[in-house]
Each structure stands twice: as structure tokens, then as C-alpha cells.
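are you around this afternoon, could really use another pair of eyes. what follows is a protein written twice so to speak, once as letters and once as C-alpha cells for the fold. i want to understand how the C-alpha cells follow from the sequence so walk me through it. anything you notice is useful, everything is just below.
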Amino acid sequence: QVQLVESGGGLVQPGGSLRLSCAASGITFSTNTIGWYRQAPGKQRELVAGISPYGDLSYANSVKGRFTISTDNAKNTVSLQMDNLQPEDTAVYYCRLQLPSFFVYWGQGTQVTVSS
């Protein structure tokens, strides 16, 4: 059974940092397409950062220079380091894994709230 479990969300003040982690069981992140998405209230889910099977990194323009996605193949985890957080970053953040067959797995999400 495949599971993706996110952790690390919480409440942080503007300008602060958080590190999200996504642990996989029943599947490995390597050789698959990985992504962090987020969904704010009343908005569509959007891609925040991704890693291709070849290791290419991509970021939404709104988070470039502030967020960093990385993987730890030994621990089978993918992380999202988020610095200089702003209120507009408030959302539920989801981990996503896409197989070469295009089948997609999602985590349950973790809430990030940026507020003073």
C-alpha cells in the first residue's frame, strides 16, 4: 500500500521559515516525478515546486528564491524548505508523486499558516 505522509506545517510569523517533509512508504521517490502543491481557501491547487525523474528542479514564480525542494533517497523523503514566508503562502500543502504511467499519489496535506 502506497502512502505519502506530510509533516512540518504550522503557524509562523511573516518572514519566518518552515520545513515540510513528505515520507513515502510502499514506493520510492527516485525515478518518479515529485511535487509540492498548495491550495488556499477558495483557490485552485497549484504547483509550488517539483523535481523531475532526471533531477530537474522547478518552482512557481511566487516562491523562487524563497523555497527549496530536495530529496533524501536514503530516507525516501522529499522536503520543502520555506523561507521568508508571507501571508499569501498560507495554504494546505500537499506532496504529490507521479509514476511514469502518469498515475498520481497524493498525501493528506499539512496546513501552513503565516500570520502575525
The two ends are 40 Å apart (CA to CA). Residues 50 and 58 are 5 Å apart (CA to CA).
